[in-house]
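in:
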């Protein structure tokens, strides 16, 4: 069973371990010092910023981190993407990682993405769509999105997480399901 809760400061050690894993570090390119983890994850953990850092569990075992936020809460990021694609004002985005390499390639990523997106429609009742840019070279990530039901809507030229990468991203989208009349 997949469940999740908000990340707390007590989870920072686990996040440091996951972010240091080569399969995660390649794409997240995050400083794993205790100070950097506290700086970057602390405000969301304390409710001081609008993003949601979610610790995802499989049968009560932590396996994943999902970050979810509304583009409207990050105007610079929204502007960079909205200049290139049709981005609804109420769109939400996610970012995600599987912490344990042994769990990669088993279909868990798409399951987590589907579950988080399904919850997004309830948690954010005005969200028109979930729109996710992924670096074009991160095939595993964009394949997980496709398997979770998102469709590719086009390329975008965006600042990469890893400065070693070029700016080429693919953008995926899923719209809020229609409600019966």
């Amino acid at each position: 069973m997949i469940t999740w809760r908000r990340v707390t400061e007590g989870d920072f050690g686990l996040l440091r371990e996951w972010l240091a894993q080569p399969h995660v570090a390649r794409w997240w390119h995050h400083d794993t010092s205790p100070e950097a983890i506290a700086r970057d994850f602390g405000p969301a953990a304390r409710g001081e910023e609008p993003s949601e850092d979610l610790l995802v569990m499989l049968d009560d075992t932590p396996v994943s981190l999902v970050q979810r936020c509304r583009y409207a809460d990050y105007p610079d990021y929204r502007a960079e993407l909205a200049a290139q694609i049709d981005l609804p004002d109420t769109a939400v985005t996610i970012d995600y990682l599987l912490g344990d390499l042994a769990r990669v390639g088993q279909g868990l990523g798409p399951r987590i993405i589907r579950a988080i997106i399904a919850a997004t429609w309830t948690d954010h009742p005005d969200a028109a769509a979930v729109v996710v840019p992924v670096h074009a070279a991160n095939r595993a990530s964009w394949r997980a999105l496709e398997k979770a039901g998102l469709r590719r809507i086009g390329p975008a030229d965006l600042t990469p997480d890893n400065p070693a990468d070029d700016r080429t991203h693919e953008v995926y989208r899923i719209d809020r399901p229609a409600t019966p009349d």
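note: The longest helix spans residues 108-123.
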